[in-house]
# Entry
Amino acid sequence: MKVNVKEEKCIGCGSCISLTDGNIFDFNDEGLAFVNKQPSTNEECEAAQNAITYCPTAAIEDIKEDE
Ligand code: SF4
# Structure
């Protein structure tokens, strides 16, 4: 999977950051989430999937590319 945060939809709640233990998402200078590191392990992908599910504004998307 490959995640992306649609910045225009993010409200900076921080849910994605806590759900992924700060491994994948972080806040930018404007207090909005961005992808700091793409998930690679199964655990990280699961956590990222949770972040997608629980983001209150559906700002996170999986933009997995065909390989
Ligand atoms: Fe932004 Fe969604 Fe992350 Fe909250 S969970 S900080 S709204 S991307």
